[in-house]
Amino acid sequence: MAYGLLLIRVVVGAQMAAHGAQKMFGWFGGGGPRGTAGFFGNLRFRQPLVMALMAATAELSGVLFALGLVTPLAALAIAVVMLTAIATVHGANGYFAGNGGYEHNLGILAVAVGIAATGPGRFSLDRLIGWDGSISGVWWGIGVIGAAALISLMTVTLGRQRQAAEQTQELRRAA
Question: Contact at 8 Å (CB) between 85 and 105?
Answer without folding.
Answer: yes
